[in-house]
Specification:
Length: about 300
């Protein structure tokens, strides 16, 4: 998609492909009589963002340009080879600027995009059916890895079903599953996910994590969590990351506490397990205002890795 838009406050939006550049022009004029540039930002547009903008643009170009010139124009849009003046209070101008402001304020997790997170220790890449063979030995040799999860696990059919559910949730835009590759040991080590994705609320959950016991307590999972938290807070500008676990899973609860997540409460009789047991779920969270301190104090050994 290509367009430029200059609103009534001389804020300029330029889009080429999937990148939106925003430039705020300062009100003070230079001695030459031109505006000096203000703060710039570049955002990557998700497919959902592109679709929302395209819907507004299609409505705009449906109306003859003369219809917009009846009132004083305050928005200038160049799109599809046309220059269109939008009146100050036109509902399509308001809708367009609302959508652009939403995009400018944050990025989003786009489940259709390939997200790669890596440092010197680990590489997180999109999980796919092609990883089945590498993950199968972990699932079959350590069937208790997901004993506190509502997902059946531990055999070939269970793993196929697990990956299929993960891919379905990804297609619905609510989960982004990764495969974990340990660079130090040069092997696939397990899986983790962003889930319960709520882009509009700048909130996401990290979970669905399982790692071969051979590589647990080696620092691998701390690196995973750091990369995912860094992406959520520093890249996307999210406000909250949450975690949940079976209340009986003490190892998981300690791991969440060790990375600075705060206990926020317990939901009783929250979900049913494969054996019919109704588990209580505990919730932990990290909010944006806490992230810098956690990054400096807990992940000091990783953040420059």
């Amino acid at each position: 998609m290509q367009f430029t838009y200059l609103d009534g406050n001389n804020n300029k939006y330029s889009c080429k492909g999937k990148q939106l550049e925003y430039v705020s022009m300062q009100a003070a004029l230079s001695s030459s009589g031109t505006y000096s540039g203000g703060s710039d930002s570049v955002k990557v547009l998700t497919l959902q963002m592109l679709h929302s903008l395209k819907e507004i643009f299609d409505k705009i170009v449906e109306i003859e340009q003369k219809d917009y010139k009846r009132n004083m124009g305050s928005g200038q849009l160049h799109f599809g080879g046309k220059n269109i003046i939008l009146p100050m209070r036109h509902p399509l101008k308001i809708a367009l600027e609302h959508e652009l402001e939403k995009i400018r304020m944050c990025n989003a997790i786009d489940c259709m995009d390939p997200i790669i997170l890596e440092n010197n220790r680990v590489r997180l890449s999109p999980l796919g059916e092609e990883h089945f063979e590498a993950l199968l030995p972990i699932a079959t040799e350590y069937p208790d890895l997901l004993r506190y999860s509502p997902s059946p696990f531990g055999n070939e059919d269970g793993l196929r079903a697990y990956i299929a559910r993960a891919m379905k949730a990804k297609s619905e835009g609510i989960r982004y599953p990764f495969v974990i590759y340990d660079k130090q040991h040069q092997q696939i080590a397990g899986s983790t996910s962003f889930g319960n994705i709520a882009n509009a609320h700048l909130r996401v959950e990290i979970g669905w994590t399982w790692i071969t016991p051979l590589l647990q307590r080696t620092g691998l999972n701390r690196n995973n969590k750091f990369l995912m938290l860094q992406y959520a807070f520093d890249t996307l500008g999210f406000e909250r990351v949450e975690f949940k676990s079976d209340s009986r899973n003490l190892q998981s609860r300690k791991a969440m506490e060790d990375i600075g997540a705060r206990f926020e409460g317990e939901l009783r009789s929250h979900m049913i397990m494969p054996d019919g047991y109704r588990r209580n779920s505990v919730y932990y969270g990290i909010i944006k205002s806490e992230w810098d301190g956690i990054k400096q104090n807990i992940f000091t050994d990783i953040k420059n890795n």
